[in-house]
Amino acid sequence: MLTGNLLWVLAGAILLGIAAGLNGTFAFLQKQSLVGDAAAHAALPGIALAYLIFEKKDLPILMLGAAITAALSVYMIQWIVSHSKLKADAAIGLILSVFFGIGIVLITIVNQSGTGNQSGLNDFIFGKAATMAKSDLIWLSSSAILIILMCLLFFKEWKLMIFDPIFAKGIGLPVERLRILLTALTVLTIVTGIQAVGVILMAAMLIIPAAAARFWSSHLGIILVTSAFFGALSGALGTMISSLRIGLSTGPIIVLVAATLFSLSYFFAPNRGLISKLHKKRAFKRQRIVNEVTTHE
Questions:
Q1: What torsion, rounded to 10 degrees, do the Cα atoms 46, 51, 54, 57 define?
Q2: Dist CA 64 CA 254 (whole Å)
Q3: Which of 240, 262, 258, 248 is nearest to 11 (CA)?
Q4: Which of 31, 45, 78, 159 meets the CB 3.0–4.6 Å disulfide criterion with 102?
Q5: How far apart are CA 172 and CA 286, in angstroms?
Q6: DSSP secondary-structure letter at 32?
Q7: 181 burial class (0-12, 13-18, 19+ CB within 10 angstroms)?
């Protein structure tokens, strides 16, 4: 039976899954998913620095530190791509590795400090929703609701920006500002989810539900709804399964559930799934043979 803190954790995980599914779809279609991965890893040094400066585990303060370093990583990726010959994938790999390395060093320093062993910052690496206090879950839920509302509010503008940026500019839409807003919302989504899912796996929550939903439709509205559903289902099942055993991290379980949904979509989705494509291929071959036989007769 669901009682007490588990109900709050479950509600927070579902809202986080919906928010990541919606925002992740826009990032996925704009081919910015790996930037989200780098930003998620870059959040770790911000968390550790915030703890070292303020010497307390206060979630809003830690999240502010995470948001600053995550946003800085996105800016540095764009700067490297604009001012060097490095491609985007190389710049993302470079920034991701450097920021995560710094984060691990800082977490080690925190753990070796006087109260570091009790800080619980290690939980931010793989996520542990069960350790979140009620006030943290209220903050997480509020942030997730804000992300959901922003995705719904800017649906038409981001749709035009992604699929027809020239037309969007032609009708006067501020495309660059919309792109910056989407990036900022991606950073907020990462910051919102890292305590529950962890910095390493938060990017998976942005990518996997959106990639799985892409198999089910080519209509943006349906993709968004499907991605949000997959995100919510992953969050709910992952939280429930991780609560069955003490010490089990929430993040990896949520990602494994999402990966299972992706596999099911890959094989069984109508029209775009592998089995459907094989059926169509066989039907086409049969029809071609029939046509050739008919022609020769």
A1: 120
A2: 24
A3: 240
A4: 45
A5: 51
A6: -
A7: middle
- 101: tokens are 């390395």
246 CB-near residues (< 8 Å, 6+ apart): none
Closest among 231, 251, 227 to 241, alpha carbons compared: 251
Query: 76-114, pLDDT tens digit by residue?
Result: 998 998 888 888 889 999 998 999 999 989 988 888 876
The single-letter code of the amino acid at 114 is G
C-alpha to C-alpha distance for 122 and 126, rounded to whole angstroms: 8
Q: How far apart are alpha carbons 48 and 105 in whole angstroms?
A: 9
Give the pTM: 0.85
Nearest to 125 by CA among 252, 238, 237: 252
Task: Tell me how far CA of residue 170 lies from CA of 165, 174, 178, 182, in angstroms.
Answer: 8, 10, 15, 20
Q: What amino acid occupies position 202?
A: M
